Amino acid sequence: MTTPTQHHPVTVVGAGLGGLVLARVLHRHGIEAAVLDLEAGRDARTQGGMLDIHEETGQAALRAAGLYDGFRARVHPGGEALRVLDKQARVLLEQKDDGDGGRPEIDRGDLRDLLLDSLPEGTVRWGSKVTGAEPLGGGRHRVTLADGSTFTTGLLVGADGAWSRIRPLLSEARPAYTGISFVELDLLDADARHPECAELIGGGMFFALGDHKGFLAHRETDGSLHVYTALRAEEDWLSTVDFTDAEGSRAALLERFASWAPALRRLITEADGPLTPRLIHALPVSHRWRRVPGVTLLGDAAHLMSPFAGEGANLAMIDGAELGQALAAHPGDTEAALAAYEAALFPRSERTALETARGQETLFHDRAPQTLVDMFSSFAA
Ligand SMILES: Cc1cc2nc3c(=O)[nH]c(=O)nc-3n(C[C@H](O)[C@H](O)[C@H](O)COP(=O)(O)OP(=O)(O)OC[C@H]3O[C@@H](n4cnc5c(N)ncnc54)[C@H](O)[C@@H]3O)c2cc1C
């Protein structure tokens, strides 16, 4: 006797912020989804990083998810402070967190926990790596996991990030290198162990820019400093550095900041633990696809962009919320729901991808950091 193939009416691939908001909004409307994630469990990886949550996207999504109050309770006070410096460590712009709460900051891990805790037990199937999916006709798909098992689904949502396994069902686009490489580092227990660095960074966001590179940093809720050193560099530069060699990789990075102020170089010399390389990729600004029955994308899978407008997580969440609402508003007509969702998704993604590309230009411009100071001044005006 053969075992019948398992069937999920709604499958979400990826338990990132976008996939989780979708599952939560569907749950609020009485629609249960199976969420698959390749991670071994919710604590398999530290989430790290602060996110500022924007009113019209991330905050709107949290309202739709019924989690706005829970979010406000987890906001990091003071996190909206801002400092902009040049490569000589001269402060060009300094803003205190005035507490107006327009772009409240939250720890990514806290936000993810809020969403995970809002879903019925077992919604997220950890340790489920999707390796591919094929159409079966009539909008149904067969999904294959890394352990060789398969199941069928009536609606397949690719919420599986930059290197989505679902995207090829809809589009041939692949993320391309943006020309910017990051090396990430942390300074732990900064007030006690790295007091000069802690004072330099301040209470919130920090930029030190020049020569088409810079330090983008943030004070985290656990008292550590998270620093992205960012450079315009050849795509293969990071692969020429051995990041398993802590001293060697530090020296290679310091060489790139040779003419920078000692106070800024100290962020590299005092870094705790290994340095982490990261290439920044993006999908084409106007990435979109023709409607294919029974499948769609959200978040980075749909519109991967560089982090220079701080919108990626915000967009993933509003995508998830709007897709959930569209499905709830079109019971029994998945195609109408997907068409309505994508009609709003495509122009929003394009608009933000353009803004992000402008953000990248601003940060790595010949005249940076003045370009960034001008940008913040124009917001204030
Ligand atoms: C350095 C950096 C800084 C950033 N800073 C900000 C910021 O300040 N503000 C902001 O809004 N955005 C920021 N972003 C962007 C933001 O992180 C992403 O846009 C956001 O996480 C996208 O969410 P998502 O749910 O679409 O995908 P992801 O968060 O990537 O989640 C995808 C999920 O899918 C799972 N998955 C992947 N492949 C498979 C598979 N084959 N099978 C099963 N599961 C799979 C993964 O394990 C993961 O849990 C930053 C990005 C970077 C790189």
UniProtKB/TrEMBL annotation:
GO CC annotations on file: cytoplasm
EC class: oxidoreductase
Required cofactor(s): FAD
Pfam families linked: FAD_binding_3 (PF01494)
GO molecular function, one term: FAD binding
Principal subcellular localization: cytoplasm
Domain FAD-binding: 9-349
InterPro entries to which the protein is assigned, alphabetical: FAD-bd (IPR002938), FAD/NAD-bd_sf (IPR036188), TetX_monooxygenase (IPR043683)
Annotated GO biological process: response to antibiotic
Cellular compartments annotated: Cytoplasm
Domain remark text: Consists of an N-terminal FAD-binding domain with a Rossman fold and a C-terminal substrate-binding domain.
Function: An FAD-requiring monooxygenase active on some tetracycline antibiotic derivatives, which leads to their inactivation. Hydroxylates carbon 11a of tetracycline and some analogs.
Family recorded in the similarity comment: Belongs to the aromatic-ring hydroxylase family. TetX subfamily.
Protein name per its UniProtKB record: Flavin-dependent monooxygenase
Lineage: Bacteria, Bacillati, Actinomycetota, Actinomycetes, Kitasatosporales
